[in-house]
Amino acid sequence: MNDLHSNSRAMLAVNAVALGATGAITGSIIDRQGYGGVEFIIAYGSVTTTGTVVTALVKEGDVTGTLTSVADADLLGTETLASLAAGARVAGTGKEVTKRIGYKGDQRYVQLSLLGTGTTSVGIVAASAVLHSPASAPTSNP
Fold first, then answer.
1. Which residues of 90-114 are buried (b: 16+ CB within 10 A; e: fewer)?
2. Residue 67: which pLDDT band, with cuts at 50, 70 and 90?
3. Among 48, 67, 47, 69, which residue's Cα sits nearest to residue 57?
4. Total structural domains within the chain
5. Residue 90: inside a domain
6. Least confident of 43-57, 59-73, 125-139
7. Structural domain containing residue 100
8. Would you state the pLDDT for residue 21?
């Protein structure tokens, strides 16, 4: 069945916020109980400074207080590809772009954090978590 709506759940992972030049955003802890995986969708707004970098970091754990970095084998894509690199700021590639990274590990809790580095503010960033492959479908809405 081609029905993502009934087989997923969307959650806010990182509130939309202006990330400063040396800012760090620790995202919400996502409880993936009952779901096979998570896809994080990161939205980068209008970033103007070419030296600005935003690094995505995914953590996991069986309890919320002791999350650790996810092994690359448990990620779909890479943290590097989900991050915003320094360089030309062209809409759709270096600014005003979405990127994604998936989690396929077996830990109950996951979290996305974003770290900004550079000489000026990064701009607005936000992220959603899409839980997928539910143990029981259809999922409720919202």
1. eeeebbbeebbbbbebebbbbbbbb
2. very high
3. 69
4. 1
5. yes
6. 43-57
7. 5-134
8. 65
Chain position carrying tokens 């800012």? 23
Check residue 87 and give its pLDDT.
84
- Would the pTM of this model clear 0.90, i.e. be above it? yes
Please check whether residue 68 is in contact with residue 123, taking contact to mean a CB–CB distance below 8 angstroms.
Answer: no
Q: What is the 3-state secondary structure (H, E, C) of the chain?
A: CCCCHHHEEEEEEEEEEEECCCCEEEEEEEECCCEEEEEEEEEECCCCCCCCEEEEEEEEECCCCCCEECCHHHEECCHHHHCECCCCCCECCCECEEEEEEECCCCCEEEEEEEEECCCCCEEEEEEEEEEEECCCCCCCC
Confidence check: pLDDT of 103 > 70: yes
Q: Is residue 86 in a domain?
A: yes
CATH number at residue 116: 2.60.120
Tokens for 35, please give them: 């779901």
- The answer to whether position 139 is within a domain reads no
Residue type, 131: L
Q: Give domain status of residue 9, yes or no.
A: yes
